[in-house]
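Entry for the shared binder. Reason: the reviewer on the internal report wants the predicted structure included alongside the sequence.
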Amino acid sequence: MTSSRATLIQVAERAGVSLSSTSRALHGGGASAAMVERVRAAAAELGYSPDAIGRSLRMKKTFQVAFAVADIGNPVYVEMMAAIHQVLAPHGYRVVVMSTGDTTTSTTELVRSLSGGFVDGMILVPLRTDDALIQALREQEVPVVVVGRPLGEHGLDSVSTDSTDGIARAVNHLRELGRRRIGFLNGPLDTTPGQARQRGFDAAHQGGAVEVAEDFTVAAGVVAARRLLAAGETQGRPLDAVVAANDLLAIAVIRAARERGLTVPGDLAVTGMDDTEFGRVFQPSLTSVSLGSAERGRAAAGIMLSLAEGHHERTRQIEVGPELVVRESTDPTALPDDIEPLSLDSP
């Protein structure tokens, strides 16, 4: 028996449980795993589709959480979004992806638009933060969790990481390999990650060559990487290693190196940051500093869930530490057995 008009009562009868238990099992209300499986199986047999609009009206909630980022195509945010969904979906919440744009003005406007009741909360990953944005976040009627710089001093929940230390770990790794002429390819210095990663490189390697890309993408990175590699050759001291501020910029460095006939890691060792799946399957596989994208997503979603469910606790600040993951782009013997290399030469 299948019907698109099956009711919750019919699902309860088919599962052999009470109506309230059926509702809890379908909407993440605290039912046991066995009951959830039993009720969902009954719902699938009957073709039951929850009345999301009716539920929202009854509970005065949208059961939607916005995930707002500057670049929805960045693999870091894709991994983070998947982790957020895994936490929120079992409790009946949908994740709505939004683009903030790359300015604080556009981000602030998006935050202020939340007062329209479209979502129950927002997980925000801002590239740039200023006083106006912080004020808009503080004035929000729906909960907001920021993934980025710690904002506890402003009374805001946030999940952060130490990319300054992460860059230092990458530099130290290259030094241990005997690399001494180390350059750095960064993204815009007026962004939170750009500033933090520049501090890390400056502290770990005084006097290293630095180039700044217009943004954190492969296309912008190739242009800047060409300048970085050319400058070293012009000075008669070609670089033997480059630290990139994210995996996309690291891939851009490898592309620019190949254009100059350089081998990686033979002539040039390259490290990235974020440890994305894209970097793992690139050839050579990319040594990268993991900043725990999925872990940060799960942490942010956990905070959001408690806020959306009305559990008002003290402001929470969670930090996820960096971890260096060594692969072929610095060590040709480091390709994991379970990774199938895939050539992605072109941006």
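Summary line for the report: The first helix runs from residue 8 to 15.
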